[in-house]
Design goal:
Blueprint: H1 10-16, E1 26-35, E2 47-57, H2 61-78, H3 90-110, E3 118-129, E4 133-143, E5 150-159, H4 168-171, H5 175-190, E6 215-218, E7 222-227, E8 240-245
Parallel strand pairs: 2-3
Antiparallel strand pairs: 1-2, 3-4, 4-5, 6-7, 7-8
Length: about 250
Amino acid sequence: MNSKYLYLLLPLYWLACRPAVPPGIDMTSKTLRYQTPDCQPERDPCLMVDLVFPVFTGDDSLAVQQAASEIYDLYFDVLGQQGNQAAPDENGLMQAVATMAKTFDDYRHDYPDDHTGWQVNIEANELYRNDTLLTVAVNSFWFFGGAHGNYEVHYYNINRQSGSLLSPEGLVSDLQALRKQAEEIFRQKYLPDGTNDWEKAGFSFNGNTFQLPQNMAFAGDSIILHYNQYEIAPYAAGDFHFSVPIGRD
């Protein structure tokens, strides 16, 4: 293995090699759907909600609750329930959807001439797991009127024993080395003309210097990097997604 790629493996390799690792949390998925009663989306302004949400299980109830809290906060935020104190479980999501439904009905009553429907789609998927790590991707789309909807991807690298999120430093031992390698790949994929000025190329990196994204996921043989819309470029540019290989010769 080329040593310049080893830095990506060190933290998780150390975790995976610990002896007698106890069983950690597991994840399955459930679906919750809601549509305004007696509403035909092709002709009527409707509220449509489609949630695929994670269900965590394990012997350590605190770890299960911690993992759920980390991810369900995103669901509550998209559903317009920022700071929601509901339990991070199916009942909590049902309460949040019911609150959004009432908000939508109230809005339709107050503004009957607005024929815009609302839509929320959130889906959680397991990307990777080993004895100590569970990586979850959550794709979310929402539209509450305006010129366009919004789409985001969020990654959660969860310690299976504690339920807590791993920091970027918990995924890699040398973030600067990762940043350098990621910049090389990003330039090859998105800057084929070889320009060195990010601003002139339409990107808004802080200080006009390449930065790692807010979202990073460990996927076994690679680190996945994802920049959401607006993070480094205008909405029209979309999002940016690529992987940094691990252990490449």
